[in-house]
Amino acid sequence: QVQLVESGGGLVQPGGSLRLSCAAPGFTFDAYASWYRQAPGKERELVAIITSSGAGTDYLDSVKGRFTISRDNARTTMYLEMNSLKPEDPAVYFCRAWDDSGTSYWGRGTQVTVSS
Hints:
- By secondary structure, the protein is mainly beta.
- The chain is built from no helices and eleven strands.
- The chain has strands spanning about 5, 10, 20-25, 35-40, 45-50, 55-60, 65-70, 80, 90-100, 105, 110-115.
- Strands 2, 4, 5, 6, 9, 10 and 11 form a seven-stranded mixed sheet that branches. Strands 1-3-8-7 form a four-stranded antiparallel sheet, with no helix packed on it.
């Protein structure tokens, strides 16, 4: 069973930046991969997704131009670069990735807090 692990969350001031990472022992991000977030009292929402080739990405409208999803060249780690963080961005951020069989795996999440 693949267990993705997120890291990089924390407390940042408005306008600041964070980079989230997602990885799992023995797992390679060869298929689609994504980041979701869930704020208290709200449904989990898709924030960013990257295609298997890495050539295609898509983002939640509210984060376009501020967040960037990527993978390292070895495809062992996925990232979410978050810039110009806003008060509406705090949430638990989860990574989700698919393997070649179409099975998806979730991480347990990392907390992002934006506060002055």
